[in-house]
C-alpha cells in the first residue's frame, strides 16, 4: 500500500512497486496481490520519462514494468477501503481482484509506506489510520481466521509505533525506524528531480533480489537488513506475537509462494461404457 | 471462542444372519443399545458421538440375499431391503466361518450405507469391530478434529489435518488444457463430453454438499516453471518431487478465475509436454516414476502430465494430432477431487474390503462422511462468528445495527440451534441444511459493510471535537447566567432592606 499523493512522494510509489515486483518474481500471482497506489507517478505530467518508475538512480531499474496490476488507485486508496479489504466487510458489488480472499492457511504480507508519525500513518494527505485501528482490524481478521501468519512491514517515519498495539497472534512486524526517528530517503536522481526510494526499502529490495523461489534464507536475515550505518534510522521488529521461531521462518513463506504438494497415487476406476448424461 | 457442544447421533441397525448370533447376548433379539463416546477436541469443544444400535435378526428375504456367492452380490441384493436415510448405517453380521467374505477380510463395506461384518465370537469382540466399522463409515475422532481445526491449538494437530477443502456453499471447478508447444501438437480434448459423461454423475452426487460450477479452457504457450531433467537410463525427462511445488505458481498467473463468484476454485490442469521434453514423468520421493503421472495441491487442485507417443516415423509431419483419452484423464482428476475433499481410504484398517464407488465417484457412506464433517465445521464456524460479532459490538458501544443485520443474526442463531438439535436426533440431512443456512446468515451478518468500526466514533473523540467548539462559547454564557442569578438574588434582598 502506498499512501502518499503528489509528485514529490515519488519514492513511496517506487517503494511499493519494488516490493510488488519482488513478490511477483518470487511466484505470487496478481490474483493474490492487492496493490494500492495513491497516485500515479508513471503517467504523472511531471514525469520526464513517462510510463516508468525508477528505483535506482541513473534509471537502472524500472519497477513499473509491463504487467503491473493496480487494484486500488488514486482516490480509492482510503483508510476505509484499506480496512474494508482487510476485514472483508466489502460491498457485494466489489470484483474479485479487489478483495482479500484469504483463509486460515494463507500467509499474508502487508507492506505500507508513506508519511507517518507516532501512532498513525497518513493517507492521501487528508486522513490517518491509527495503530489502534490497525490492531483492531488485524484482530477482526484473526477472529474470522483470515490469515495463518501475517508479516507487516512499514516504511515511514516512526514506523515502530504502528506495530506497538498489535495483540492478535501470529503477527510479525518490521519497521524502518523507531519512535522518535525519521526514515530517510535514499538517493535523488537529478534527471527526474525527486528522491527515488527510501533507504530501508532500498536495502530490502537489494536483499530480496538475491532470493529465488527455492531459497532457504530466513527471517533473521531480513531483520539484519539496513543497519544503522546505512539507514541512519534504527529498523525495528516485533516477533513476540509470532508462534514460530523467526530463525525457522523462510523468506519465501511470505514473499514467495511454495505450495504443499502431494503425489496422486490413486485413480478412480470408471466404467467407460457409460452413456453420456444429459446436461442440465 | 464459545464452547461448542454437539452430540452426533448415528442410527445403526445390526442384523444377525443365521449362525452368527454370539452366545453372550444380554437380552434376546431384538433389542436396542446405545454406545456413547466422547471425542474431546479441547476444553472448548466437546463432541460426543452416540451410536444408537438396534440389534435384530434377519428377515427371510435378507437371509436369501446373504446366501449369495460373493459379498458384492449380497450387498446389491440387500440394497432395496434396507433403510437408506442419510446418516444411518446397517451392518449385517455373518458367521465367523462364512465364505461370503474372502480370507483375511473381516469387513466388507458396500457402496451404499451397509457393511458385512464377520462375527468375532463374543459380543464384546463383535461390538469392538462394529464400532470400528461405524467410525470408518461416519466420522472418526481425527475427521472431527480436522473439521474443528480452527479451534485446536496448533501444536496438537498434525500438519496434514488442515489440508482438506473447507466447507463452502459452492465450488468452482476449472479444467484447463496446457499446450506449451502448439507447433508440434494439436491437442483435441472432448471436455464437454467427458464432463457430461464422467464428471456430472459425481457432481450430482455431491450436489447435496454444495453447488458446483464447471468451466474449461485451453492455454497455449503455458510452460511449467521448472525445467525437467533428462534421464539417460529411461531416455525420458523427469520432474523430481521437490521441484513440484514450484510448478504451480507460474501457471497460476495465467489461469484466471470467474470474476463474479467468490467460491473457492479447484483447478485441474492437463499438461501436454513439448516435443523436446517428451516423454515427461513425475518422480516420487524415492525416485520411482508415478503411475498416474499426476500430483495435487491441497485446497488448490491437481495437475496431470499427458505424454504423447513419439510418432511412428521420424519424418511425420508436425503438428501431430493428439486425441486425449478423456476417460484416463478423468479417472485421475476425479480421484484428485476425492482427495481434495478428504475422501481417502488411507486410514482404513487392512482387514476391511471396500467396494469401489465406480462412476458415481463416491459411496453413500463417503457422502455421509463429508456431511458429518461439514455440519460440525459449519456449526463451529457459526458459533465463532457470532461470538466475535458480539465481542465487536461490546467494544464499540455506539455501533448501529441495521434491521437486516439483526434479522440475519436471529436467523443464524435459530438455524444453528436447529442444526444441533437435529444432529442429536440423528437427522443428518436436515442438520446439514440447517447448518448451511446458519453459516450463510452468520457470514452475511458479520461481513455486512455497515459494521466497519471506523464509521463509529468512540465517545472520547466526540468530546475532543465538540469541547473546543463549545467551551469558548459557553464561557460568556455561563458568566452572564451567573450575573443574572446574582442580580436577581440582590433584587430580592433589596425590598426587605427598604422596609
Automatic annotation (TrEMBL), chain A:
Active site (UniProt): 115, 157 (nucleophile)
> Superkingdom, according to UniProt?
Eukaryota
Keywords of this entry: GPI-anchor biosynthesis, Signal
The protein's matches in InterPro entries, at most eight in alphabetical order, are given as:
GPI_transamidase (IPR028361), Peptidase_C13 (IPR001096)
Q: Which Pfam families match?
A: Peptidase_C13
Q: Its annotated pathway?
A: Glycolipid biosynthesis; glycosylphosphatidylinositol-anchor biosynthesis
According to its UniProt entry, the protein's GO biological process terms are: attachment of GPI anchor to protein; GPI anchor biosynthetic process; proteolysis
> Quaternary structure?
Heteropentamer. Part of the GPI-anchor transamidase complex, consisting of PIGK, PIGT, PIGS, PIGU and GAA1. Interacts with GPAA1. Interacts with PIGT; this interaction, via a disulfide link, stabilizes the expression of GAA1 and PIGK and links them to PIGS.
Q: Which family does it belong to?
A: Belongs to the peptidase C13 family.
What is the protein's name according to its record?
A: GPI-anchor transamidase
Organism of origin is Callaeas wilsoni
From TrEMBL, chain B:
What keywords are annotated for this sequence in UniProt? Endoplasmic reticulum, Glycoprotein, GPI-anchor biosynthesis, Membrane, Transmembrane, Transmembrane helix
Has the keyword Transmembrane helix been applied to this entry?
A: yes
Please give a single GO biological process term from the UniProt record.
attachment of GPI anchor to protein
Q: How does it sit in the membrane?
A: Multi-pass membrane protein
InterPro entries in UniProt: PtdIno-glycan_biosynth_class_S
Q: Using the UniProt record, give the first listed, main subcellular location.
A: endoplasmic reticulum
Q: Does the keyword Endoplasmic reticulum apply?
A: yes
Task: Provide the transmembrane region boundaries.
Answer: 463-485
Q: Might you report a single GO cellular component term? A: GPI-anchor transamidase complex
Give the UniProt subcellular location, in the record's own words.
Endoplasmic reticulum membrane
Pathway the protein acts in: Glycolipid biosynthesis; glycosylphosphatidylinositol-anchor biosynthesis
**What family classification does the UniProt entry report for this protein?**
Belongs to the PIGS family.
Q: Which PANTHER family match?
A: GPI TRANSAMIDASE COMPONENT PIG-S
Name of the featured protein? PIGS transamidase
This chain's source organism reads Callaeas wilsoni (North Island kokako)
**Gene of origin?**
Pigs
